[in-house]
Structure formats: C-alpha cells, structure tokens
Design brief:
alpha/beta, about 250 residues, about 45% helix, 9 helices, globular
C-alpha cells in the first residue's frame, strides 16, 4: 500500500472528485479526514465508507475562517498523531458573463478557490513542518492553462492556484513539504453527468483519448503525487485531461 500509516485531509471530499480521492487514499492505507461544507453531507459520505472504520473521520470547518481550519486540522492530528497529506480540493465554478457578473459572486469564487486554499495550506504546513514534512496537493483545472469563454472568476482563481502551488513548493521545500497541483479536464461529476447528450458528444470529440475523464482518473494522479513515488516532484501542475483540445 502506497500510503500505509499516512494521514490525509481532503477538502471537498463528500462527493465527486474529492470523494474519489478520499476513497483512493483509504484503499492505499491512509487515515482520512473528509472535509465538507456541512456535517450533514460529511456524514452521508462517511456512511459510504463504513468499511474503513476508525480510519476515516469527518470535519466541517468554514474554509474562509483560518482559525476553524487550524482547529479542525489539529483535531485530525490529535486523533491520528500526524497530518501527512492535504488534498486542497474544495472549489466552486460559474459561467457568468462579464457584463452580468456580480462583484459579490466573483468574490465568492475567489474566496473558496484561492483564499481557502491558502488558509488550508498554511494550517497544514505548520503541522507538517513540526513533524518533519508532508505533501500538499491543490486541485487546479485545465482552464488555468487556457482560460474559458465565460465565468472569468473560475480560470482566474485556478491561475492563482497554480501560482500558489509553484511559489509554496519553492518556499516549503526546505521544510520537506512538497506542493503540487492536479489540473483536471472534463470529468464525469454530477454536473457533467446531468448534461444532455447533445452537449456531451461535442465535449468527447474535443478529447483525443475519446472519453470523458472519471473521478478515479484524478484520484490516481493525487495518489501518485501523495506517495513516495513522487518524492522528487514538487511545484508541478499535472494535467489530467486526455489532451483536451481547447
């Protein structure tokens, strides 16, 4: 098992990509704390992972409250003795056009997709430095490389995630903390699965591999970066998008 004895926190871990990451980490031997926006959704996710017993727990800090995050991460450390891996996966997307974009909606996207990534990385890094090292993995997006035709806050936030990733990798290397990002393409989440076939087929045609990605594809990339197989990989933004043509 690649993560035997490790402890991970996965934000946005109650469904979709985040849940797949949490499950993959559990399968590979890690203890996992699933972080969600509400304990109700966290408990529903935990119900699906009962087979892992005490190796999985739930937390629901406000990701725009640094103190709540620090307290929740300390709770994880108190239970499992360590915090080795942070999966910074929580995020929100939007497709608002510039002329109609409400400033408060733009701010909400930046708050969760950028500020929360910073707050979580800071809280985790403080624990990791004290114990001698760790791994931080941020969820970026293919639009962080190419932009998108509407909803400018989302690609702007993911460009920022890439910048945070590369900068923190350089800053935290001396503390034996690796920092990387995964940039998913079109993935079969609930939102994508709900799209009509007339929209899905053009998406598939833009992907050279000829299929939409699965949450497990992203989870596998996370697993690689979290494990010692990637012990000399830091500051990378790993595209997992089937070479999608933009």
């Amino acid at each position: 098992m690649l993560l035997q004895g490790k402890t991970a926190v996965v934000t946005g871990g109650t469904r979709g990509i985040g849940f797949a990451i949490a499950k993959k980490f559990l399968e590979e031997g890690a203890n996992v704390a699933i972080a969600g926006s509400r304990m109700e959704s966290v408990n529903k996710a935990l119900d699906k992972l009962k087979e892992y017993g005490d190796r999985v727990m739930g937390i629901a800090p406000d990701l725009n409250n640094p103190q709540e995050i620090a307290d929740a991460f300390q709770q994880v450390k108190d239970r499992y003795g360590r915090l080795d891996i942070l999966g910074n996966n929580a995020g929100v997307s939007a497709r608002d056009r510039l002329y109609d974009y409400k400033p408060e909606d733009f701010d909400k996207t930046i708050a969760l997709n950028v500020n929360a990534v910073f707050y979580c990385a800071q809280a985790a890094a403080r624990i990791m430095k004290e114990q001698g090292g760790g791994v931080i993995i941020n969820t970026s997006s293919m639009v962080s490389l190419y932009g998108q035709a509407a909803g400018c806050a989302y690609p702007a936030s993911k460009f920022a995630v890439n910048g945070l990733t590369k900068s923190l990798a350089r800053e935290l290397g001396k503390d034996h903390i690796r920092v990387n990002a995964v940039a998913p393409g079109v993935i079969r989440t609930d939102m994508v699965a709900a799209l009509p076939d007339a929209m899905i087929q053009p998406l598939i045609q833009s992907i050279p591999l000829g299929r939409i990605g699965e949450p497990e594809d992203i989870a596998n990339a996370y697993l690689f970066l979290a494990s010692d197989l990637a012990s000399y990989v830091t500051g990378a933004v790993l595209s997992v998008d089937g070479a999608t043509m933009t």
